[in-house]
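Practice record 12: protein with iron/sulfur cluster.
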Amino acid sequence: MADKILKKAGLGALIESVTGKGGRFVAPTTDSRQVVFKKVKSAEEVATDYILARNSFKEFLFPQTEVVAEFTMSKDSVDMKGVEVYAPQTVVFGARPCEAASLAGMRALFTWDFIDEFYTKREENTVVVTVACTKGDDACFCTTVNLSPESTEGTDVYLREAADSYIVQAVTEKGKKFVETHAAVFSEGNAKAEPLFMPEKIANIDIAKVSARLKDKTHYDDKVWARLTSKCIGCGACTFVCPTCRCFDIVDEGTAFEGERRKNWDSCQYDTFTLHASGHNPREHQHQRWRNRFMCKFHFYPEKFSSKGCVGCGRCIRVCPVRLDITEVMEEFSK
Ligand code: SF4
Ligand code: SF4
């Protein structure tokens, strides 16, 4: 049976087809020698030779900052009004299978005790087109967290690279509809897929053991945390690039009479994250903040939402200025 094919030379036509219908097309682009996800208008802007974009595509579903309400105040009243959710039809092209797998956890949080329409509407209007990895680096560890370049969790359309084309597999109904809507740019044919880059599973890590150890709270005051993570400077970079980190803060900005309520990314790595108005901070030391992040990934989210808190993309390892490697902590907690 013939495969569904997208010619690499046809990527521009796909972008035109999406943007011509009013959608936004997000793809990895090369910017100051880094590859980052950005909104693009042409195929020339799209990076093809990359391992993983430096940022996660989460910022197109959960922006770094956004207005969620507006308010006016007078002596006698406060008026609050909602704002329209910005949720354009969006295609995220060139995501990797690991990061697509983060969407289940994002959705679980944003639909947990309250339906966050800002996130859910944008996610519903987004088609995730992953391109399976043909290259990787030492920071990739998806196979250690039970994913792989063949995983299709969170993916709507899965692409395998071939010489001058992509072999197309529509995974979800949304993905099938996307391929039908832009049928003119796809063709039937046969192509030979390039081999995938399969990161070697880290032998000393056992995710089940990590989770089990974290469940037993006796580790809380273990000196191991300070030993492994005291070099952390609390910059928060790891949380901002992580596809599964989704902490935010709500702040009011404006004057005494009018303003807007904003939802901003926050980071559990900041010393002010848990600082109480009284001055008390239950996570006074950096290693306690790092412990929280690790517990979020391997205990809180798997237990509360049955979802992965870490998809093994390795972004946090690549961006960390002090090279704090989460897999070293995973190894320690697998003993
Ligand atoms: S914790 Fe690190 S490796 Fe895991 S998903 Fe986040 S950025 Fe990727
Ligand atoms: S990127 Fe590194 S130094 Fe910065 S908060 Fe994360 S672990 Fe700490």
